[in-house]
Amino acid sequence: MKAMWNNQVIAESNDTIVVENNHYFPPDSVNQEFLSPSSKHTTCPWKGEASYYTIHVNEHSNPDAAWYYPHPKQAAENIKNYIAFWKGVQITA
Known about the structure:
The protein is mostly beta strands. It has a single domain (about 1-90), classed as Beta Complex (Metal Binding Protein, Guanine Nucleotide Exchange Factor, Chain A). About 0% of the residues lie in helices and about 55% in strands. It contains no helices and nine strands. The strands form three sheets. The chain has a four-stranded antiparallel sheet with strand order 5-6-7-8, with no helix packed on it. The termini are close together.
């Protein structure tokens, strides 16, 4: 699977975990040079608190377009620190 935004591959892995129709990419498959931490947080009742990244590519930014669970609840422990994308990020096989 690939995560692409603004014609740039942000992440690529054959080992994503699909949860609620979202592909969560292993942390080491994500090109961190395109991400910067965001102050945004949301809470999922069964996964816990999500933290967000803003994606930066070619002088363009996509705020809060990636998220992950640094300290998930036990039910979501398998996606700890895995990163998922939305807001126009294309996920393709």
